[in-house]
Write a structure and sequence with these properties.
- By secondary structure, the protein is mainly β.
- The protein has six domains: 2-309, no CATH class; 328-392, Immunoglobulin-like; 397-478, Immunoglobulins (Immunoglobulin-like); 485-563, Sandwich (Immunoglobulin-like); 570-645, Immunoglobulins (Immunoglobulin-like, Sandwich); 649-736, Immunoglobulin-like.
- It has no helices and 60 strands.
- β57 (702-703) and β58 (706-707) form a beta hairpin.
């Protein structure tokens, strides 16, 4: 036994998972004298926790119907009593499909008589409730959405009397997913009015805060995050909001299916093949016309579930791979559970078009379409029949040979159809909009020319009886070579070194010939040339093809201007000096056409003046650079070195007075021209009181934050003399004096 998915039309849901309204509709009958028998059908899960409205002792409130006139004036709110409850039998009328045993849906039918005297515009009768199943897939927040079932009694200006349509059949409890679902959803009309069917959206109703009329807000329900102060005592008048569908679903495509569900507007036959597990809310409308005037619309709202069913026998013929396979067929058989088979190949010319084989062969005498019938387990209690239309036409398989590429100049392409086809086959060629002609219906069109070079798609479509085949290939039209000199600056500085960029293009290999107005030539792809002296120069590039399409294309540039360059120059003095006299005087002797100067002195500083005095802060050799620019933006640079010689001096006092009077408060030697400097102070017992490697830091007479006493202290200084490049060590005494 093979498992399939099935659709449960809820009306019908699984007992363990749903406790909500799953469908309903409202019907009325005109009894005369302004009296109407109202019938409300409500379908909901079998559940003691969610009983029908109006059941005595159930704890549920009454079932109320609200009545309005056409101007939305409230006529009244009517208690329609208790329902008659029956269990909907889970039958699908197919012995080959096993009925699931966990399905239970109850039908509650309320019947009451209302006296509604004839008035203009008639009456609207409304019943509202909450809530739907929270697991519905095709609407937004389904567990918070209720239902509205209503009907309209037209006024005497429209019709003298009317009875509403009523559906003939209840939807079946389940149908199998993946199998075509066909259901007669037609209705009858006691008045013989014309009925038109459509799939339509269900309406919203009450919510989780107030699931019924005339009750207290349900403040503890998770379906009521913001309870109102009170609940309504009557339903509002129409119109009503439809449910909000969850994309990609909508009122025209309410359930996942392929092909999609649709309803015949005349017969009411609903067809479709569902293909996804889950619950789906669904609506069917019946418009009632009399004398071509719409007088009422009857609504049915129901729910669909996808669960699993078991199919014991299923007759399945696989689809025909192609309509053009010739006259001989080998029929596949994908049936389930069958042990015996009857085939009828639908050939009206013979009675010998049958077989009992599992996978028979049959050859048709003529072309056309034939309805093939397969019965699995014929004559047995559990048999299944399926039919499928097969098309018998000669094979059609077309193509055309590839065309070699052609030169743009004088191009003319010829095409011819090859493959398997009949003499009466018709053709449609499309050569693209760049072709002349762009289309053709000939079998073998010739002299097709293209107005531009490029790669073009050519499409051929062939039609033979009911068969269509197509083939696509490309043709290449080779254009002329295009010579291009890319990114060439037109303003240069003397002497100008130019690395030429070649942007030439062609579908074929090319050679190149460069000609320069200075008399030079080159065959390189991208040559380099030096243009001097100043003046205007030209260059010509020829791109040449020598295979298939022999051609030459040239491009010239005649405005390459080489501008004069400035000359940098400066003098400075002294060229060698001491750190004791480090000022340097700089004078420019650059060419007269210079507009802008810039000096870099090698010590991180610079200047933009042609004449400058600069003082160095340390000894060393410094590179002085001069950059000059003229009005054409041409530049020149020159560099020279100035030498600042070091000097050596060392002097140290023999006493100091750290009394914070800003006079002689620090004991600090003066050391010039030294490196690797280290200065230490010791007391008479050899304890180090102070140490530094900074020649500009002295001792303030403190040790560990306390003043040292008046005494004589020992100092030691070590450093390297940068003049003679020798290491030196000096010792001595210093007296710390205090003013008493």
């Amino acid at each position: 036994m093979k498992k399939f998915f099935f659709i449960l039309i809820c009306f019908f849901t699984i007992k363990a998972s749903a406790t909500h309204i799953v469908g309903g509709e409202m019907i009325y009958d005109d009894l005369g004298a302004g009296n109407y028998r109202l019938t409300l059908k409500i379908y909901r899960d079998c559940s003691v926790t969610a009983p029908f409205d109006g059941l005595p002792g159930s704890g549920s409130g009454p079932a109320y119907v609200t009545v309005y006139d056409a101007m939305s004036n409230l006529i009244g709110v009517f208690d329609i009593g208790a329902p008659i409850i029956t269990v909907v039998p889970p039958a699908i009328n197919n012995p080959c499909i096993l009925t699931p045993n966990n399905i239970c849906v109850e039908q509650g039918i309320y019947t009451t008589t209302l006296n509604l005297p004839p008035i203009a515009g008639g009456y609207y009768l409304i019943y509202q409730r909450c809530c739907r199943n929270n697991t519905i897939l095709n609407i937004v927040t389904p567990g918070f959405v209720g239902s509205t079932y209503y009907t309209h009694i037209p006024g005497p200006e429209a019709v003298a009397a009317n009875n509403s349509p009523r559906f003939t059949n209840l939807p079946p409890i389940f149908v199998c997913n993946g199998l075509k679902f066909t259901f007669n959803h037609s209705a009858t009309d006691p008045d013989g009015d014309q009925l038109v069917y459509s799939i339509c959206p269900p309406f919203q109703g009450l919510d989780g805060c107030c699931p019924t009329l005339n009750t207290s807000p349900n403040v503890t329900s998770p379906q009521c995050p913001s309870p109102p102060a009170f609940c309504p005592t009557e339903a509002p008048p129409p119109p009503y909001l439809p449910v909000i569908f969850q994309a990609p679903y909508n009122s025209a495509y309410p359930i996942a299916s392929n092909p999609a569900f649709s309803i015949n507007p005349t017969t009411g036959v609903l067809v479709g093949t569902p293909n996804l597990n889950g619950q789906w809310v669904f609506g069917v409308c019946v418009q009632e016309f009399r004398n071509n005037q719409l007088i009422n619309t009857h609504y049915r709202d129901f729910q669909i579930n996808v669960v699993t069913c078991s199919v014991t026998v299923l007759s399945v013929i696989p689809d025909q791979p192609s309509k053009c396979m010739g006259n001989s067929f080998h029929f596949g058989n994908q049936s389930i559970g069958g042990t015996e088979f009857n085939w009828d190949f639908g050939d009206p010319t013979t009675n010998a078009d049958t077989s009992h084989l599992v996978n028979p062969n049959y050859t048709y005498a003529d072309t056309g379409s034939y309805v093939v019938t397969l019965i699995a387990n014929p004559g047995k209690p559990c048999a299944d029949t399926t039919q499928k239309t097969f098309y018998v036409y000669p094979p059609l398989d077309i193509s055309f040979p590839p065309n070699p590429k052609q030169c743009f100049k004088g191009n003319a392409f010829n095409f011819s159809v090859t493959g398997t086809f009949l003499a009466n086959t018709t053709y449609s060629w499309n050569f693209s909009s760049a072709a002349s002609p762009g289309t053709s219906t000939l079998q073998n069109p010739t002299s097709i020319t293209y107005t531009n070079a490029g790669l073009y798609y050519v499409k051929l479509i062939a039609k033979q009886s009911a068969c269509i085949d197509s083939f696509i290939d490309t043709v290449r039209v080779v254009g002329r070579p295009i010579a291009k000199i890319s990114n060439l600056p037109t303003s240069l500085c003397n002497p100008a070194t130019v690395a030429f960029s070649n942007g030439s293009s062609c579908d074929l290999p090319m050679t190149y010939f460069w000609q320069f107005s200075n008399g030079n030539t080159s065959t390189l792809f991208e040559p380099t040339q030096i243009f001097t002296p100043t003046g205007v120069y030209g260059v010509t590039l020829s791109a040449i093809t020598t295979s298939l399409c022999i051609d030459t294309n040239a491009v010239s540039v005649t405005n390459v201007t080489v501008n004069p360059s400035p000359y940098a120059g400066f003098t400075f003095s002294p060229q060698v000096t001491s750190i004791f006299d480090p000022e340097i005087t700089i004078n420019s002797n650059a060419s007269f056409d210079v507009l802008y100067w810039q000096y870099l002195f090698g010590d991180g500083t610079g200047s933009s003046f042609p004449y400058e005095k600069h003082t160095y802060q340390d000894y060393g050799d410094y590179l002085i650079e001069q950059f000059v620019t003229n009005k054409f933006g041409c530049r020149d640079t020159i560099r020279q070195v100035v030498r600042i010689l070091p000097e050596y001096r060392f002097w140290i006092p023999n006493a100091f007075t750290p009394d914070e009077n800003l006079l002689n408060d620090y004991f600090m030697p003066i050391a010039i021209g030294v490196v690797n400097y280290e200065f230490d102070i010791f007391d008479r017992w050899g304890e180090k009181l102070f140490s530094t490697k900074n020649p500009k830091q002295g001792w303030n007479g403190f040790y560990k934050g306390s003043e040292c006493k008046q005494d004589t202290y020992v100092w030691r200084i070590t450093f390297k003399n940068v003049v003679n490049e020798k290491d030196e060590v000096h010792y001595g005494h210093v007296t710390l004096l205090k003013n008493l």
